[in-house]
Amino acid sequence: MFSIRSLAALAVIVSLTAAAWAEAPSTVTSEWLTSLLADTSAEAETATEAETADAGDGLPIPFHTIGGYGGAAFTPIAYLVNPGPAGTVVGKPAASATFVRLGSKDLQSVAVTQTFFRRIELGYAANRLGLGSLDNDIRKLAGVDINRSEVYLHHFNIRGLLIEENSFDLPLPALTAGVHFKYNDTIEKIYDRLGGILSGLGYEKSNGVDYTLTASKMFPELAFGRPIVITGGG
User: Which of 86, 104, 117, 158 is at a distance of 20 to 30 A from 11, taking alpha carbons?
Assistant: First the structure.
């Protein structure tokens, strides 16, 4: 059940994120993109400076995942959020809110990030998942009232940019490592109500830590003159 909800939420959020990216003005992304597409020619440098000046107060790029770090939907991207131009010590903070409705169920996420020295990203996100009819379904099938119609998950993240894109004059991807602490402050109460049967489904505890390594590479004009970012990791 949780896997189906997650896949459906992913499809919806990816669609919303793609639409937002497509509709964003080019000046919004220029500060981020120009740092990745720097050209050695004087003409390109002049154009870059003009675009960056126009985009100084634009939207932060990349977006937030629902886990509260740079990326889209559930997928991290190696680029840090709103790092600022070269020489920036403290980038501008970025905040986001996401809402998805899936039939009787719904998901809300609020996130905030702050990047330092263009190398370190700190982030936090709070998620609320409305369970819809799940409590009633469990009551009918098992005769147990979990007395919960929603669950909450907290994410605390730190990511570090290990290698900048195109470093050493080579076509290298950006490489970012992250540590993500997660805490579900509702699941223990559901676990107790159900008499511990969640253990049979793989549940162990209400908190955990994820370690991530993400690589991203942008191809500036791959999609009919528009950039494509390919990202992967573990």
Answer: 158
